[in-house]
Please model this.
Amino acid sequence: MLYLTKNRQTQARIASGNILKTSFCYSAVVGLAVLTAGVLISSNSQARTTQECLQFDTTPAVIFTVSNAKTKLNKKKNSRQIEKFAKSINAFKPTVKGRLLGLTFTDVAPQLGVEVEGRQMQNGDLCVRLTQVTFQFGIRRAEIFVDRQYKAGTCNFKAILAHEKEHMKINLAVQKRYEKKLRKKLQIQAGKIRPHLAGSVKSAAQKISAKLTKDLKPLMAQFQKTKRKENLKIDTPKSYQKVRSRCANW
Model:
């Protein structure tokens, strides 16, 4: 965000929106941006298994993909409308008070999916194994807002836009770092899930996806925390003054 304060300093910051999607069959897909569902099993070691079932073991494939939406520029809202939108998405709280001139909005809504296979044991029990985990990561919506008071091409417009673009660069850089962390964590946790007995393939998919979601939750929280920390590095009185000094008539 970009704020114009009474002493004519400015501030910028970002916000992230969250979306949850789920579906279950022989596979399960769970959005990691909203983690409110109860965890059905806390560890694979709590699931019942047998030596016959363990012979059904396999190394699950982990497919990790990244896709980022193209950043859109929104010049239709005034300062109050941008501020109203910022509040609606629970944007990071500003460190100074003032008129909101710009906002960088990124909606990161990762999705985790699992594929599970089942086999009937000699005694009739159902043994299930995890065969594949998919993880879709990236920015699904990216939008920069600039107060419509400042027309495109003007000095003030360019200054606001440049500042917001710096925040977008920070967001992408932090995301790049966490892509590696998340991929590694997912590979480790998926590899720990051994074949076990279950009531149905569907329920097993639900439980496994819930467990992996829980496993990734701390890292996702750290990702958000790091984004805030890195963005605050350019939200300083010195950076505000630098933006302000570029133009007149704020």
Notes: Confidence is low (pLDDT under 50) at residues 5-45.
